[in-house]
């Protein structure tokens, strides 16, 4: 079993290190890492990891900047990541941390670390423990932040 | 006959439970459930349910958050769900309840329950009673809210 | 020759009735109707009408609501309808009437009736009389409203 | 060698006439014209011209209106035209003139005439004289307006 | 090994010259240049360079204008470039310099020169030295501007 990690040198935090640590803690899959310049390069990298490197799931890690153009880039990348999944019938877990989600550099680093780790847990559940995701369904999970929780009932 | 249900652990209400209850009430199809983290993971999940699990219709259930980034995610997910349908010639009924459609948590829960159930009815009509949909054509149906009704005539 | 009509029960006017009346007045094609819940279900319905029911043209009829989310849905549906055309090399005539294009319910009904009929005429021209479209090229045709007319010359 | 021209009866100027005149002046390709109602019908028309009528390049001519909905239509059409090119490995030169680019009807007509002609020249260069395009690379060409010119150097 | 360069005559700076200089400095790949009118013509040009001219990577160089319509064009082009990559499993490095990123023509020229060169370095790393990209992962690289640097740690 191989898990791919596509990350960028545009990001200001080594999200892949966080992902790898968490994946290694939770499963014994082989990890293949593929670094590209920016988030718009992630879709094809993820597709190559799936189709040419045999990965059965990819984590796509990016940190879009705070400007409007960065938001547009992130949107384009996300659209591409969804398309890549549809072309391969394989999950690509998008982990994007927007620079303006945090108020300081330290907070940005913590958020990136935590969100990446929590999404690595999601990756493991998707591959090994899908019933755990179903148990959490509708519970308002929020990666990197406090969970929002259930409403009603 | 198999019907797929793709839902998320991001949602704050167990929409799948509502869907399953309604589907079981109205037909005898086997139901296959597939829970993913968020709405952007729904398109590939729906496509897998169709192509690898034999579902002839999928309900895609999600609850996008209230922030602009959540709206963008929902838009990306919707675009992917339409693409997945075109790639499979199979209906995927999108049931999204936006957190900011309701004024309180209780109202949000009721809306999610009701909209999901009414879309489950739509799913049943699409599969078993298409003539009922045609009879309702142009009557301003609104899932989760009061119907808007006809104009003219 | 078969012409498909995909319509919705979300719409507040029976646009399909208008389309069928006009199509029957202008040609002898067999008409196949397929009603779905909302505009986002139209792309796959249209593609099914083309690929599985043998239609050589489809009219996709919808009435998006006035809220921003409705505008987004309409945009997603339109994108899907264009993709469906590219995947089938077949025309899908989109006839969308936005609720906020009219000032009253009566006006909305008239607009829906008129625009649908004028697009049914376009459908007939595309299939039977393409030279008539070329004769009208550049003349500022507006379905449902007064034509805008030529500029220059 | 065949060149396709897809145009609309929504446009308020006979852009195809301008294109045909310029193409005939610059090359001996056979010209096939295909008129559709609006810009959203252009992508499939262009693809049909390429795949079923043997065109090795298509000019897609349209004149989007000034309202926000018209801008959205133009965006959807452009996205479809790019997709059609990717599906066929063939250039489709988009020539859109937005009604609100001009201050008067006369100016709109002149702009449509000039932009169409200058894009017809581009079409000829793409097919017959690619080295001329390379010679112009980075020179700030603007079809229909004064060129913007080089910066730097 | 062949590297493609797709550029435009709309751009106001000869970005291809900068790219070629940098590529020749860093590798011995054959370079194939393909100039098109504008950024929306880049996706199909890049795909042709890959599929019909044997390029194993393409740089797509463009300089979108400052108006809202130019931003929309750039967005459409970017979406197409990502799609072209997914259809070919090949990297297309997008190098777009927006006219309004710079305060003067001189600054615009410098930015275009520098960003293009730094992306040419990225292209070389992707093809020949992928481990260097991984070494830079998470370091906040910014092509054409000062790097943003790491956060945390």
| SS element count, helices of chain A | 5
The run of helices and strands of chain A is EHEHEHEHH
Assembly status: homopentamer
Distance between the termini of chain A: 40 Å
CATH superfamily of chain A: Lumazine/riboflavin synthase
Q: C-alpha Rg of chain A, in Å?
A: 15 Å
The count of strands of chain A amounts to 4
The chain-level mean pLDDT of chain A equals 97
Outline of chain A: globular
User: How many domain units of chain A?
Assistant: 1
Binned strand content of chain A: 15-25%
Please name the two chains that share the biggest interface, counting residues whose Cβ lies under 8 Å from a Cβ on the partner chain. Answer: A-B, 36 and 43 residues
Question: In the CATH scheme, what's the topology name of chain A?
Answer: Rossmann fold
Spans where pLDDT lies below 50 across 5 or more residues of chain A: none
Percent of residues of chain A in helical segments?
Answer: 40-55%
InterPro entries (chains A, B, C, D, E): LS/RS, LS/RS_sf, Ribfl_synth_arc
EC number (chains A, B, C, D, E): 2.5.1.9
Catalytic activity (chains A, B, C, D, E): 2 6,7-dimethyl-8-(1-D-ribityl)lumazine + H(+) = 5-amino-6-(D-ribitylamino)uracil + riboflavin
Pathway (chains A, B, C, D, E): Cofactor biosynthesis; riboflavin biosynthesis; riboflavin from 2-hydroxy-3-oxobutyl phosphate and 5-amino-6-(D-ribitylamino)uracil: step 2/2
Describe this structure in words.
The structure is a homopentamer of 153-residue chains. With 153 residues, chain A is an alpha/beta fold. The first copy, chain A, has one domain: Lumazine/riboflavin synthase (Rossmann fold, 3-Layer(aba) Sandwich). The first copy, chain A, is built from five helices and four strands; from the N terminus they run E-H-E-H-E-H-E-H-H. Chain A has helices spanning 15-26, 42-51, 68-88, 105-128, 130-136; strands spanning 2-8, 30-36, 57-62, 92-96. In chain A, helix 1 (15-26) runs parallel beside helix 4, helix 2 (42-51) runs parallel beside helix 3 (68-88) and helix 4 (105-128) crosses helix 5 (130-136). Chains in contact: A-B, A-E, B-C, C-D, D-E. Chains A and B meet through helix 3, strand 4, helix 4 and helix 5 of A and helix 1, strand 2, helix 2, helix 3 and helix 4 of B.
């Amino acid at each position: 079993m191989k898990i791919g990690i596509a990350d960028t040198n545009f990001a200001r935090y080594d999200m892949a290190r966080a992902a790898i640590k968490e994946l290694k803690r939770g499963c014994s899959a082989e990890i293949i890492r593929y670094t590209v310049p920016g988030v718009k390069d992630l879709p094809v990298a993820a597709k190559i990891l799936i189709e040419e490197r045999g990965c059965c799931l990819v984590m796509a890690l990016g940190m879009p900047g705070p400007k409007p153009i960065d938001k547009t880039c992130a949107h384009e990348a996300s659209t591409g990541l969804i398309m890549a999944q549809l072309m391969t019938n394989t999950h690509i877990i998008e982990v994007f941390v927007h620079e303006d989600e945090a108020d300081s550099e330290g907070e940005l680093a913590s958020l990136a670390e935590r969100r990446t780790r929590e999404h690595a847990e999601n990756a493991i559940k998707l591959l090994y423990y899908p019933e755990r995701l179903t148990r959490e369904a509708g519970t308002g999970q929020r990666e990197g932040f406090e969970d929002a929780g259930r409403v009603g009932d």
